[in-house]
Design brief:
The chain is an alpha+beta fold. It is built from 9 helices and 6 strands, in the order E-E-E-H-E-E-H-H-E-H-H-H-H-H-H. The protein is rod-shaped and about 130 Å long.
Length: about 290
């Protein structure tokens, strides 16, 4: 399957350290360009994220955002008896010197550093939850890129089929156009050249015929169209190959237009160039 380089996916999951949230965005790029915005608490996971993404995506600019929210609540923590005893002793000492000083409230005690001892988070479980979450998001992202790629492939195959029809219509026009142009050229030569130099006329006509022969361009265009269809049907990472083929198609269409011996052929060559430009635009979105 051909994949687009444009996609989006988002996923969330519970972990011992809170709710993990990952967001993946991809857009066009000549190479694989990874950009990370990771919460400080999860910074150590970035190398693994890079491995997971690189294994699934070959081209495109990837923006990965990973955050951690809803950390364990205070009711899940335990009171630090040692810290409370220490605070009680300090408060009694202060009361001796400042009898009028108010005692600490319960809210103030709970906010005091070290009073609430949160249970140690299971790092292995958090890492496993994070990896599973990223894999799920990547599955969703690749599926979206695949659906978009299928639509692009369908459009490109339609353009290729239309180019083949246009090309088939050019071939019958060539002999008639060349013959008509040869006749006009011969008539003009006869008007300006003495009748005794018939050999010069034949040489000029032969040169014109050689320049007007577009069989080679038609053959190459047909071969490139075949290759475009083959690459699209094969699937995989095809963007760079299709971009090269689009350039070759454009080069042959330019040559065909420059050698066109008649208005109909020139118009057909222009239509081919328009179709090729449409292909080039769509190919820029393919991985």
């Amino acid at each position: 399957m051909v994949h687009s380089m444009t996609g989006y996916a988002v996923a969330s999951a519970e972990s011992p350290r809170g709710v993990l949230h990952v967001e993946l965005r991809t857009v066009n790029s000549r190479f694989l360009d990874l950009q990370f915005r990771v919460a400080d608490e999860l910074r150590a996971a970035e190398p693994r994220l890079r491995e997971l993404i690189s294994a699934r995506i070959a081209r495109g600019k990837v923006d990965c955002r990973l955050s951690l929210a809803d950390a364990p609540r205070a009711d899940a923590a335990q009171l630090n008896a040692t810290a409370l005893q220490r605070l009680s002793s300090l408060q009694k000492e202060i009361a001796k010197s400042f009898p009028a000083a108010p005692a600490l409230s319960v809210a103030e005690l709970l906010r005091w550093p070290g009073v609430l001892a949160e249970p140690a988070a299971d790092e292995d479980a958090t890492r496993a939850a994070l990896e599973a979450l990223v894999r799920r998001a990547l599955d969703e992202l690749c599926a979206a890129r695949g659906r978009e790629g299928a639509r692009l492939a369908s459009i490109l195959l339609e353009r290729a089929a239309e180019m083949r029809r246009r090309l088939a219509g050019i071939a019958p026009l060539v002999p008639e156009a060349v013959a008509a142009q040869r006749a006009r050229l011969a008539e003009r030569l006869r008007e300006v050249i003495d009748a005794g130099v018939e050999e010069r006329i034949r040489a000029e006509v032969a040169l014109f015929a050689a320049k007007s022969d577009v069989d080679e361009e038609i053959t190459r265009l047909a071969a490139h169209i075949d290759e475009v269809e083959r690459v699209l049907n094969k699937g995989g990472t095809a963007g760079k190959r299709l971009d090269f083929l689009a350039q070759e198609l454009n080069r042959e269409a330019n040559t065909l237009a420059s050698k066109a011996a008649g208005l109909k052929i020139a118009d057909a060559a222009l239509e081919l160039k328009l179709l090729i430009e449409q292909i080039r635009e769509q190919v820029q979105n393919i991985e």
